[in-house]
Structure formats: structure tokens, C-alpha cells
């Protein structure tokens, strides 16, 4: 087998490699330089597979580096991104392992950072936070470990959410209109559940907040 042509793609720094006048695989400019790929090179089947493997590995690794350049990512997110490139599964595993060696993937540290940031910027109950971590592909065991180590009180969060929601509203005005009052209570209850507050905690927080409002 002989490399008969190397043609530049429309995509920047990508080239199509032709073996025996037929398209075989693509490579970036750095691959061509690193592996000294040139027209006239000859291969046996094993040599061809090895070259393709190296080019795919570099392609996947560079894609992961670019994906991580803006912010940390979970292992699941990186896998999902690399899989879009139609990369061999064995290569994906090798790239993931390399990223872990470089400390660029650490789902537990990611989960801790995400929980801390989320709780400061957008307070939510544990149920909603756990769901958010699951959606990012964090394994249940890691989620359980992080939640057990994390100091976070759903009740305090629920009270803060109610205070913010009702900052400019006088609940006492609803006391004389029972149907309207009940409707408002149900609306607040659903709001707390939506924000990830548990049923019992939502009830307790609502009761405490309303009792406080009556005393004012």
C-alpha cells in the first residue's frame, strides 16, 4: 500500500490521506509532521492501522483539550463530545485515562465545585441538585459521597426562597380570603418542590414562614 495523495480539506489544518488512489483517513497538520507522513510512503496493513490509530488518538485528545479549555467537564461530557468524532471506543478509553492522569478529569472535585457554585448563585434543594449532577453523568456513588460530605440545609434554603419570592407581598392581606389564601399556599408549595425542596421540609418551611408573617 502506498500513500498516493495528501489533500487539504476545507476545514482548517485537516488533510485527507489517499492510499492506492482511494481515500483512507484524515489527519491534522501536526500529525503529518509528527509521523512524517508523505506521498510515496509504503505500508503493510498493520502499519496502516497503527498510523490511523495514532492520528485518531491525537484527534480525540486535542478535541478533549479544546473542550476543557473553557471550563471543567465531567467524564460523561467529554466522552459524549469525543464520540461525535466517530472515534474508536478503545481510543476513547485511552484518552479518558490520559486525562485522568493529567488531573483534567475528576468527577468528585467537579461535583464539589458545582455544588458550591450552584448553592451560591442559584439556591436549590438537595433533590434538584442531585438531579443536576445526574444529568451531568456523575455516578451515583460519587453523588452520595459529595452530598454526605457537604454542609447544606434544605430548610434554610426553603426559607430564603420564600423570603425572596414574597419580598414585596403582604401575605396577611390574604388571611381574610380563604380560597385565595389556599391557592397562594399551594402555589408556594409547588414552587418549593420545583426548586428541589423535599415534601416534609417544604411543609415545615411554609408553616414557619406563615406563622412568622402572622406575628408581624
Explain what this protein looks like in three dimensions:
The chain has 216 residues and is mainly alpha-helical. The protein has helices spanning 29-34, 45-68, 75-83, 89-101, 107-121, 126-135, 140-149, 154-165, 178-194, 199-215, and strands spanning 3-8, 14-19, 22-28. A 3-stranded antiparallel beta sheet has the order 1-2-3. β1 and β2 (14-19) form a beta hairpin. α2 packs across α4, α5 (107-121) crosses α7 and α8 (154-165) packs across α10 (199-215). The longest helix has 24 residues, at 45-68. It is elongated and about 90 Å long. It starts with a strand and ends with a helix. 18% of the residues are buried.
What is the β-strand count?
A: 3
**Uncertain segments:** none
Portion of residues in beta strands equals 5-15%
SSE ordering: EEEHHHHHHHHHH
Mean pLDDT: 85
Shape: elongated
What structural class should be given to the helix and strand makeup? mainly alpha
Helix content: 55-70%
Q: Quick gist of this model?
A:
This protein has 216 residues and is mainly α. The protein is 62% helix and 9% strand. It contains 10 helices and 3 strands; from the N terminus they run βββαααααααααα.
List the helices and strands and how they pair.
Layout: E1 3-8, E2 14-19, E3 22-28, H1 29-34, H2 45-68, H3 75-83, H4 89-101, H5 107-121, H6 126-135, H7 140-149, H8 154-165, H9 178-194, H10 199-215
Helix pairs in contact: 2-4, 5-7, 8-10, 9-10
Spell out the key features of this protein:
single chain; about 220 residues; mainly alpha; three-stranded antiparallel β-sheet; 10 helices; 3 strands; about 10% strand
Amino acid at each position: 500500500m502506498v500513500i498516493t495523495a495528501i489533500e487539504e480539506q476545507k476545514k482548517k489544518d485537516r488533510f485527507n490521506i489517499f492510499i492506492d488512489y482511494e481515500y483512507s483517513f484524515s489527519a491534522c497538520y501536526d500529525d503529518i509532521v509528527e509521523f512524517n507522513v508523505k506521498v510515496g510512503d509504503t505500508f503493510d496493513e498493520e502499519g496502516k492501522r497503527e498510523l490511523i490509530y495514532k492520528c485518531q488518538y491525537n484527534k480525540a485528545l486535542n478535541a478533549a483539550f479544546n473542550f476543557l479549555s473553557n471550563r471543567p467537564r465531567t467524564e460523561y461530557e467529554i466522552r459524549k463530545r469525543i464520540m461525535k468524532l466517530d472515534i474508536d471506543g478503545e481510543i476513547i478509553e485511552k484518552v479518558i485515562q490520559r486525562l485522568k492522569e493529567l488531573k483534567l478529569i475528576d468527577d468528585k472535585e467537579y461535583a464539589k465545585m458545582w455544588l458550591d457554585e450552584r448553592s451560591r448563585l442559584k439556591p436549590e434543594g438537595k433533590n434538584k441538585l442531585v438531579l443536576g449532577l445526574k444529568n451531568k453523568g456523575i455516578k451515583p456513588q460519587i453523588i452520595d459521597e459529595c452530598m454526605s460530605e457537604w454542609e447544606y440545609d434544605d430548610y434554610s434554603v426553603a426559607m430564603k426562597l420564600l423570603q425572596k419570592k414574597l419580598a414585596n407581598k403582604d401575605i396577611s392581606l390574604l388571611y381574610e380570603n380563604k380560597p385565595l389564601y389556599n391557592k397562594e399556599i399551594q402555589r408556594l408549595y409547588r414552587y418549593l418542590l420545583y426548586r428541589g425542596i423535599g415534601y416534609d421540609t417544604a411543609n415545615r418551611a411554609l408553616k414557619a414562614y406563615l406563622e412568622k408573617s402572622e406575628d408581624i
